[in-house]
């Protein structure tokens, strides 16, 4: 598996361990919108310890006689964590108070609130996630070192690498993804493997940009991404758009190779074409695979990054946009 570089390697790290217990890793979903109080779906805000999203969604489906697909979620949360997120249930005739009672009785954790809304909650229907991560067994100078690293990352932005969760342990999902591109399987596991292949290539693209010194700016031919709303556009004037990147308005975006991916142009396109060629996969094969492509921001802004020293170690608190990995940020501190 590709070894990812440390952006802040010029600064000393803090060492330590995370996720010693679920309570050491707290993730709270930041919603894209709030339920309006009316509609055919019941939104249930739920907080639990040591349970993953998929297991809870299947439990909710059985509890209310639904298909697993009917239960809506905006994103997946780790099992080794304290996690708060929202589920949607298509229960047009159910009493909301009764829904709360059944969930509180049958599921681990607690119901924070429940309200009605008009549509199913779907993947990506969130702004991001807030994290609180306790790093244990840190070095004595951890607070000072962490403060310096936080300042550096706040100034430059964070390289938006995919974490090991997407790639699989030791990258095992990546090789399987290349195999699945060339067969007709369309189940969820095959799709997981194919997207791991995409993620690994994006990580390689981002490593190349860091090495070339073009991570924090854009070049002619890039497909740039606005950091406020995700809108994509082609970079034609490098000087003008790099100034916008310096103001944290935009970022270069990297390829998630697929049949409908928006392609870069000029020198930026040459880099992406060389990267795809290393895999032996052609655009024709991508078209046949029906693997959906996309673009991912190279750089993300970390909001509200704060450090707190406690007797047990060091708390890191921050907010990341959807699709980004807390473990990628934490490794900048722990190494």
Ordered list of secondary-structure elements with their pairings:
Elements: E1 15-17, E2 25-31, E3 41-49, H1 53-64, E4 72-73, E5 82-90, H2 96-106, E6 110-117, E7 126-138, H3 142-156, E8 158-159, H4 164-167, H5 172-180, H6 188-212, E9 223-226, E10 232-234, H7 238-246, E11 250-256, H8 266-277, H9 283-289, E12 294-297, E13 299-300, E14 303-310, E15 313-321, H10 326-334
Parallel strand pairs: 2-5
Antiparallel strand pairs: 1-7, 2-7, 3-5, 3-6, 4-5, 7-15, 8-13, 9-10, 9-11, 11-12, 14-15
Task: Describe, in plain words, how this protein is organized in 3D.
It contains 10 helices and 15 strands. With 335 residues, it is α+β, with helices and mostly antiparallel strands. It has 2 domains: 22-129 and 303-334, Pseudouridine synthase, CATH 3.30.2350; 158-300, 2-Layer Sandwich (Pseudouridine synthase), CATH 3.30.2350.20. The strands form 3 sheets. Strands 1, 2, 3, 4, 5, 6, 7, 14 and 15 form a 9-stranded mixed sheet that branches. A 4-stranded antiparallel sheet has the order 10-9-11-12.
